[in-house]
From TrEMBL:
Residue intervals passing through the bilayer: 6-25, 37-58, 64-82, 94-113
Protein name: YisL family protein
Native source organism of the sequence: Bacillus salitolerans
Pfam families: DUF1516
Keywords for this protein: Cell membrane, Membrane, Transmembrane, Transmembrane helix
Amino acid sequence: MIHAHVSAWFVTLILFFVALFLIRAGKKKPLKIVQMVLRLFYLLVLGTGLHLLAAAYQFKVLEANIKGLIGLWIIFLMEFILTRGGKGKPTKVFWIQLVIALILVFYFGYVVLG
Ligand code: HEM
């Protein structure tokens, strides 16, 4: 399940950057499709994450839950950035949060929960 989770968030991050590129390029139709696939992957990340949270964690429960909440926040931030960015609205505040949340999630995922 850990491999499924890692694969899911990896693909999610790539699709997020593809979507950003499509916004910049002004390609609306492909953007819609990528965003739909991306939302499917949000669910996969969430599903595998919740499964890990429920099944694998007998200890470090608090840390795992914090990690899960940060992961969830990342999903919201990506969605905010893409929907607002697509409408030409400012996204800077969300970008700052995204960078911090990504650092935290990798810290929790690999260092704390390693
Ligand atoms: C885009 C969002 C997310 C990213 C980038 C992310 C990233 C990671 C990383 C790097 C790890 C460590 C993998 C390893 O040890 O090989 C991990 C593990 C984990 N993730 Fe996520 N995650 C995300 C979303 C979520 C969500 C939404 C949840 C829960 C609702 C979640 C729950 C977990 C749990 C419980 C583990 C611990 C697995 C273990 O070490 O045994 N993650 N995640």
